[in-house]
TrEMBL record:
It is found in: Cell outer membrane. This is TonB-dependent receptor. GO terms for molecular function: siderophore uptake transmembrane transporter activity. It comes from Thalassospira lucentensis. Residues 69-173 form the TonB-dependent receptor plug domain.
Length: 239
């Protein structure tokens, strides 16, 4: 009889403990949403400038990264300022001479010269000067006349490039970058000038170039270039 009473008492004790644990778990579950709700209310009450907002991570990738010409997935030729000073070109043809797949039409007259890239020219080759397109297919289509003295760098892209350079770049792209005052001024110099003269024997031509440049402020610069060229008639090689 004693054993039966003890067994019943033990079972009653275990049942009470189970009820206590269940009630405690229920209280903890009920309190969790309340804490979250209170925290949300507190965040809403704070000024916007004091809130901490965590955004998802954003990954940005691009293909226009600095790379060498030999590693670029395109056929590109570049003539930099140092090479231009060494060559001392008289016109566009002198700059592009020797580039594979590139010729210049119009003969030695610099006012009518046009690039030919892989056999294509005119509206099938895009010409850009400082990023702006220079050969628009409207109105009178003149040649590309630019004084080599003001050219800083020449880039030639051979092959279709319309997706990057705009419509018409089936043959390729000729991109010219001009100099600015910072390219001409020596360190510590704010103003300068230069005068050059040249002579061509084939047409007894004389060329004069005067350039003045300065940097009035740290955020601005000025460059003015004037070129004059006089030539006589010449006889082509084929008569």
């Amino acid at each position: 009889m004693v054993r039966t009473t003890s067994a019943r008492l033990l079972m009653a004790t275990v049942s009470m403990l189970a009820l206590c644990v269940s009630a405690h778990a229920q209280d903890a579950t009920d309190e969790t949403p309340k804490t979250t709700t209170d925290q949300t209310s507190d965040d809403a009450a704070q000024p916007v400038s004091e809130r901490t907002i965590v955004l998802d991570a954003i990954s940005v990738t691009a293909s226009k990264t600095g790379t060498s010409v030999i590693d670029a997935p395109a056929s590109i030729s570049i003539v930099d300022q140092e090479e231009l000073q060494r060559r001392q070109p008289d016109n566009l043809g002198d700059i592009l001479r020797g580039m594979p797949g590139v010729e210049v039409s119009g003969g030695p007259r610099s006012t009518v010269q046009m690039p030919i890239i892989r056999g294509l020219t005119d509206n099938r080759v895009v010409i850009r000067v400082d990023g702006a397109r220079a050969n628009l297919n409207v109105g009178h289509k003149g040649g590309l006349f630019i004084d080599p003295e003001v050219v800083k760098q020449v880039e030639v892209y051979r092959g279709p490039a319309s997706t990057m350079q705009g419509t018409g770049a089936l043959g390729g792209v000729l991109a010219l970058t001009t100099v600015d005052a910072n390219d001409m001024l020596e360190p510590g110099q704010n103003i300068g000038a230069r005068v050059k003269a040249g002579y061509t024997s084939v047409d007894h031509g004389m060329t004069w170039n005067g350039m003045a440049y300065g940097r009035p402020t740290d955020n601005s610069d000025i460059l003015v270039s004037v070129t004059r060229k006089n030539t006589d008639d010449f006889e082509a090689g084929n008569g």
